Amino acid sequence: MKRVFAVLLAAAMGLCAQAPQAQESPRTVIVMDGSGSMWGQIDGRPKLDIARETVGKVLAQIPAEQEIGLLAYGHRRKGDCGDIELVVEPAAGTGGLITDKVNGMRFLGKTPLSQAVLIAAESLRYGEEAATVVLVTDGIETCQADPCALGMELEANGLDFTTHVIGFGLSQEEGAQVACLAENTGGRYFEARNADALIDALSQTVLSDGRAAKQAPVPTPKASLDGPEAAAITTEINVDWTGPDAVEDYLEIVPATETAATSGSRNYAYTKDGSPAKLIVPADQGDYLIRYIWQGPNGREVIATAPLTVTDSEFAISLPPGPIQAGSAIAVDWKGPNGPLDYLAIRTEASTEAADITYAYTGDTNPLEMVTPNEPGTYSVLYIVEGTGERRIGVSVPLSVVEGTIDLRAPAAVRPDTGFSVAWAGPGSSQDYIDIVPAGYTETYGELKYAYIGGEGPGPRELSAPSDAGAYWIRYISEGAGGRKVLHQIELSVDPDAPDVPTSLLVAATFDVPADFAGTPVQWSAVPLEGQAVSMDAWAMNEFATGPVSGNFEPGVYSVRGDATDMVFTGTVTISADGDNRFTILPDETLSPTTTPDMADGHGPDDGADGTPWADYAYSCLGDQNCPHTDAASGLSFTLPAGWVATSPDMTPASAGAQAAGEQLEHPYVEFYEAGGNMNALYLNPRQWIADNGPCQTTGAGELCLFRNDAAPNDPAAFMAMGALQASLIHAAPAAAAPLSADEVESLLDRLAPNRIPAN
């Protein structure tokens, strides 16, 4: 998950021309996140520099009599959710001291966001006097707490408590998961995408303005929605709308029981894209609402709703997410009657009269592999029922095809009949090929030399130069649906006086960690990003090293990762033939081994007290057969796949208030780990989850989510384990034990204390 950094500022810290009197302003605590994600950049600047600068500017505007303190977390230890410290007690005249402390902080730990907010509120005696904080965050909670529940708890227990939240570069889904902390306390949520927007947002959180906003909210504008009353799973619907059309307004589909304006729905469309809005229907049937979300001055509000019944369907088609490269092979999941002549087709439009650009019979293959058209554009993928005297469309879904990255890289000149390598980037369909033709030749046949792309992996292809000297083209030919097409070409000179083809075009690159982490042993790896003319072979170290580490690479863009024992460093770098190629890779706690298996020793997050790998887990299945388990305390039953372990089911809620009230979760929280191999991980009912983490499936015990493994993102073992667990998970409330009778109590006490004096 993305890491979070938070700067909690009293609303009195706004950049106002006339500051309110001290007695009108609540006591304030700044809570500064010291997590590794603060090294991330916005507009080329580390977020920690932007935060330091902003805090300094705002503190310079605070009256000397304003009582302000500083609370920090993650600034002393890595991977510790308990690393929270009140650095400066709230007092008057502390602005300069706080600025110095913030400027001297290190950024290397975890992010106990909710617990830090709670401690800050308690340090301000929020239950006895007015208190306002402002949270600036670039991500979501990572210490298994619930900011939304905390917001309701603080609002219920506070005398006059308000939290404003500023999402610093957050996506819509991420912002929805933290905006509730503001909205549940009567505060506002701001979106800040750069340093200027951050300062502007802070300038609007002046104490008197923030409190007045709770008493006199801006009137809600009118909006309307006009969409279908029912739709089948996974289909696309059009919804006509009217409304204020503010910059961040959007329509979404949520379960009918959803009441919060910040739902985090993945089924949404921004109003700025026009009316009608195109929405993809959820994959689960049931009762839903189409909602208009207005991003007004008082935060997000639901200003219009329309009911939607999502029905199951005899037909469904599921495509890979996002735009798809022209001419590429894709896996298409389908649902249908699977008649002997049924097939999937790609067409320019969803019509029974339209011609098939390409097709594939369903047979017994699911998913089906289909090659997309090699012309960018919008298409339809259809399930076609072909029966006796019948041809009809079962379902149609839109397919967006884009040009994508096409590239070729080869020596500019070679000698006649000399072999050489051609690196490539393109769709990579099995029938695509690279050819050599005379310069100016435009036909897609009659090549002089060629080499197929398919069947040999993503590395360079070997070609031999023509025998005759002259000017030639090297071309990438796509065999996409609809016919051949030249996607890219480069010049080649065949010259008897050409220099020898270099045996290696590799250049050196060096990776290191920031100075704050100097001396940390790290195991490094680098993988070239897809879509470029670079061999896709990964580079990796087999051992840990301290200090700078170097390797040789083809010029290109690489994803670099460094695994330490309690921290992970990640970054994307561009290695060039004429560049310095020395890179500082920043910490990324979203991949910390505290939440995913520890790859350093080949076992996992727990090697066992007796030295046996994985032995200390509550449940394990380390043999060759799957293992059924039932946890009596929680009532959870499941079958562990062979080679997997699980933590003890936890029914404890995240918020302190719910814990104090003795409340229990509806379904338990469990972590599942693969005890070897690619170290895959599954989470049952994770407390926080974003789409980028990986897919989720509904089970008989709640949501089961697969954490995407960067080392093996499409590992079949992970999806097989997910399917096996999904089918086996059952949660039933544990049976209550019958109370003991008075005689049974007496008998038990006698056995425990034979010399006691019986009760009269």
Automatic annotation (TrEMBL):
Signal peptide: 1-22
InterPro entries documented for this protein: VWF_A (IPR002035), vWFA_dom_sf (IPR036465)
This protein's UniProt keywords: Signal
Keyword tRNA-binding: no
Signal listed as a keyword: yes
Every VWFA domain range: 27-206
Membrane-spanning ranges: none
Name of this protein: VWA domain-containing protein
